[in-house]
Amino acid sequence: MSNIKVKTERILTLAQTIDDVYNTLLAQFGEVENMIASVAASWSSNTFELSKNAFNAIKDNFYEKRRDVLSNNSQYLISVVVDGYFNTEEKNRRELDDLISGMPNGGQVGNTIKNDYRNWDSKVGQRLGNFESTAYTTENMSHMAYEDRRLDGQCTWYAYGRFKEITGIKLSSALHAKFWLSQNAGDSQVDVWGAEPIKYPSIGVSTIDGDYGHVFIVEHVEMDEKGEPAYVYVSEANAADDDVKDRISNKDGIIQKLPYDEYLRTKRPSGYITAK
């Protein structure tokens, strides 16, 4: 439990820091709203409406980014700790509960994360990745490889970006998908695994899918009562059923829920890449 406890503290502290920043900015938003209201009488109605609309657009964008950041950084805790919470012996569950409740505002943040863990079905059909972020643009090796951005919408572009969103890690190599396991094996930031057992959150790599292979993101795995994989939540780009092959499509990054046997049959994983 000691290693899990250290990782739990690290992620809960991060989540709390994000929430503290959010609350500070929320108070500042309130002050700005009051300032707008206080000077509104001296503005023309058009100026006031334009200022208010611009402010509300900024505020809405901040709320969305805050939600995405908190959700993405929670995934590491979910994979390392919350699975342990639901699948380990009662003593360990109590120990984790005590740790979560003992953190600053930990009960609230920890319970939010545990509830989020239980709601993966609500994410099916949604795109969690923010394709406007630097993870998919200026910090993405596939995006930056060509001036015409011809790799945007490819599986390597998406997997590189989504992995960066979830873990904060920029992989050292992002060539053809079939080479990802071998070429990232020496990257000190990650661990490279074989086909079994399934790992998450991770990059799943198929070295036997077409001429170039295929990479995808294993977002989450739902276990059965025996602790065996029952369902796999996957996201990817340029999948076999995607008719748009040369640009970003509305299917790219969408969360799918697959029974484990169907996942093995359709994704044909050769191995996984995870954050250390």
Q: Number of helical segments? A: 8
Helicity range of the residues? 40-55%
Low-confidence segments? 83-89
Mean pLDDT: 76
Which geometry do the CA atoms define? globular
How much beta, percentage-wise? 5-15%
Strands of the largest sheet, in order across it?
1-6-2-3-4-5
Radius of gyration equals: 21 Å
Class by SSE composition? alpha+beta
Distance between the termini: 17 Å
Q: Tell me about the biggest sheet? A: 6 strands, antiparallel
Q: List SSEs in N-to-C order.
A: HHHHHHHEEEEEHE
Strand segment count: 6
Structural notes for this entry:
The chain is α+β, with helices and mostly antiparallel strands and 276 residues long. It has eight helices and six strands. The protein is globular. About 3% of the residues have low confidence.
List the helices and strands and how they pair.
Elements: H1 2-39, H2 45-87, H3 90-102, H4 106-117, H5 141-144, H6 155-167, H7 180-183, E1 190-193, E2 202-206, E3 214-223, E4 229-235, E5 256-259, H8 260-267, E6 271-275
Antiparallel strand pairs: 1-6, 2-3, 2-6, 3-4, 4-5
Helix pairs in contact: 1-2, 2-3, 2-4, 3-4
Keywords:
276 residues, alpha+beta, 49% helix
Summary of the model, kept short:
The chain is built from 8 helices and 6 strands.
